[in-house]
């Protein structure tokens, strides 16, 4: 799409940097995910943390997805957008009392609880507001997600979930708390997982823990296996839609369950990453001692992933490519006063000049939501392709 001169001319009219959202691609992606999930009677709660742009959320809500939230504000936002309360879950290791009360008052489907103390606090607050809270207990399964260590969450060393050694005690606390009801078990082992075998290992652990509870007479209605399905950052045009069939197939095959038990997913990135592109203008070109620099009007303040995780995002020049032009290597950097403000080193691009448009692809997930106004930057701008 970014090789198209019509798109280029439209974008040249806009102030940059901006987040370009391809709502047609988003719709196709959502339809593919929903179809693959419905076929197996699986439920998807979209993880708002990946992108909580109103237009994106409205489309996701209209397709019948639930919402997976990690703050009181995300819970409120889901309600405002129109997600039904019975399709909203609230996760996170550090829920404040105020946030818990907000969620209780909205009568959301369930809290994903991460510690014994949190169980006790939710029980107490539910008693105070006269509600009964559904909870899913997050278990840390100690499964290696084989992904960047900053986004792996299911290892013993991570802060998430209740460790195996504490489960006996957690089960006893749940039984003794009057205002909470255990509906499910919750797992999430990491993000940007491209090796589907990781999910197979997760299923083995889920089965073990479900049996552990059932052997003790506790019925588990919901198996929430989290999110984490990765996307193709290298080839966004070739693989714009993740292989949801293959992903769900793993769980269908390896999760032991009865027809009454529900399987829930919390996908974020896989649904929204490819529909977003950060569009930026070249402010300056400069030859350093060893490098050619492209200095953009977008920086780590608009897209932090490369600076934070050395994440790869494909970088392209927008507009029709002229055949036979020799490409150059550029370090593509932003205007922020930090050396880590770099989108890519030695990026091969056609020769660029001041005013050219650059696309930084696959930025729909954990892009706009992680923006900051460091250096007192402008609010994020948008362009919706529909
Ligand atoms: N459920 C839980 C409990 C999570 O912690 C996460 C993501 C998700 C679901 C959604 O995971 P997804 O399907 O999007 O992989 N900022 C990082 C990613 C952080 C992921 C945090 N948790 C990045 O830019 O790569």
Automatic annotation (TrEMBL):
Known catalytic reactions: meso-2,6-diaminopimelate + H(+) = L-lysine + CO2
Pathway: Amino-acid biosynthesis; L-lysine biosynthesis via DAP pathway; L-lysine from DL-2,6-diaminopimelate: step 1/1
EC number(s) recorded for this UniProt protein: 4.1.1.20
Residues annotated as domain Orn/DAP/Arg decarboxylase 2 N-terminal: 26-273
Residue numbers bearing the N6-(pyridoxal phosphate)lysine modification: 49
Residues the record lists as binding substrate: 269, 305, 309, 338, 366
Cofactor requirements of the protein: pyridoxal 5'-phosphate
Domain of life from the UniProt record: Bacteria
Role summary: Specifically catalyzes the decarboxylation of meso-diaminopimelate (meso-DAP) to L-lysine.
Protein name (database record): Diaminopimelate decarboxylase
Lineage of the species this protein comes from: Bacteria, Pseudomonadati, Bacteroidota, Sphingobacteriia, Sphingobacteriales
């Amino acid at each position: 799409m970014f090789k198209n001169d019509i798109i280029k001319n439209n974008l040249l009219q806009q102030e940059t940097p901006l987040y370009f959202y391809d709502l047609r691609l988003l719709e196709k992606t959502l339809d593919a995910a929903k179809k693959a999930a419905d076929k197996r009677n699986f439920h998807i709660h979209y993880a708002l943390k990946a992108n909580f742009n109103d237009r994106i959320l409205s489309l996701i809500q209209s397709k019948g997805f639930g919402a997976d939230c990690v703050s009181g504000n995300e819970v409120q936002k889901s309600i405002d957008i129109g997600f039904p309360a019975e399709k909203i879950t609230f996760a996170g290791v550090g829920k404040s009392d105020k946030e818990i009360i907000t969620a209780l008052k909205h009568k959301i489907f369930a809290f994903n609880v991460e510690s014994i103390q949190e169980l006790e606090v939710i029980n107490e607050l539910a008693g105070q507001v006269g509600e009964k809270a559904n909870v899913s207990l997050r278990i840390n399964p100690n499964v290696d997600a084989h992904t960047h260590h900053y986004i792996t969450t299911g290892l013993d060393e991570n802060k998430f979930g209740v460790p195996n050694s504490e489960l006996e005690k957690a089960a006893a606390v749940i039984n003794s708390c009057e205002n909470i009801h255990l509906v499910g078990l919750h797992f999430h082992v990491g993000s940007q997982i491209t090796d589907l075998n990781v999910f197979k290992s997760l299923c083995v652990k889920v089965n073990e823990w479900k049996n552990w509870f059932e052997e003790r007479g506790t019925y588990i209605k919901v198996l929430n296996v989290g999110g984490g399905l990765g996307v193709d950052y290298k080839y966004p045009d070739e693989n714009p839609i993740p292989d949801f069939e293959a992903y769900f197939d793993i769980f269908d095959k390896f999760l032991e369950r009865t027809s009454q038990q529900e399987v829930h997913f919390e996908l974020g990135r896989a649904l929204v990453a490819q529909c977003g592109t950060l569009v930026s203008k070249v402010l300056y070109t400069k030859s350093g001692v060893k490098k050619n620099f492209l200095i953009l009007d977008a920086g780590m303040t608009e897209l932090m992933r490369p600076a934070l995780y050395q994440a790869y995002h494909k970088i392209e020049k927008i507009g029709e490519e002229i055949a036979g032009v020799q490409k150059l290597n550029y370090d593509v950097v932003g205007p922020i006063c930090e050396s880590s403000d770099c989108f890519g080193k030695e990026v091969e691009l056609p020769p660029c000049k001041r005013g050219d448009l650059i696309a930084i692809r696959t930025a729909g997930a954990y892009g706009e939501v992680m923006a900051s106004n460091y250096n007192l930057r402008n609010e994020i701008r948008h362009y919706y392709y529909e």
